[in-house]
Write a structure and sequence with these properties.
This protein is α+β, with helices and mostly antiparallel strands. The protein is built from 1 helix and 8 strands, in the order αββββββββ.
Length: 166
């Protein structure tokens, strides 16, 4: 077997990726990122609607819990024009909690006539026994809607997906 002199070492190929392979992977990563970013931006309006609905439902439940714990009537008021809500003890002006909903949302409410303190303002009253005056708050955005229902007898708050129309 012939031997090569030491000055001519055997050629060894380096293991690695070619430039074309790296460009293909970078292109696929860019496409995947663009699809992910597009899906994320498209989901934001729906996420905003779900978060606002969840916040309204949570505050309604907290208002009911305060009525049970304190033994006093509590009210949840929502201004459908200015998209503001507040929770307070019935007969008081100072709210315990308050918040504002995003401008992009449209609101509607159906409550007892006696619980409408003014135009565009709806109120749901919770009594110390857990019952309420009942009602429905509808939050809408771009054809999607969520309903927050308050049962009058039990005061239970239920959230369900609804149609975007009125």
């Amino acid at each position: 077997m012939p031997r090569f002199p030491a000055r001519f070492p055997a050629v060894r190929w380096q293991q690695g990726f070619s430039l074309i392979e790296l460009l293909v992977v970078a292109g696929l990563a860019a496409v995947a990122f663009a699809l992910f970013a597009g899906a994320l931006v498209g989901a934001l309006p729906g996420q905003q609607l779900r978060e606002a609905t969840g916040a309204v439902a949570a505050e309604l439940r907290a208002t009911r819990a305060r009525a049970l714990a304190s033994g006093r009537d509590q009210q949840f008021l929502i201004d459908t024009v200015n998209r503001e809500w507040r929770s307070l003890e019935a007969g008081r002006e100072t709210p315990r909690r308050q918040g504002r909903l995003p401008e992009a949302l449209q609101l509607g409410a159906t409550v007892a006539r006696e619980e409408q303190p003014g135009p565009g303002i709806a109120a749901i009253r919770f009594f110390p026994d857990g019952s309420s005056t009942g009602g429905r708050i509808v939050l809408r955005r771009e054809g999607a809607a969520w309903h927050v229902d308050v049962h009058w007898l039990t005061g239970a708050v239920r959230v369900e997906r609804g149609a975007g129309g009125r």
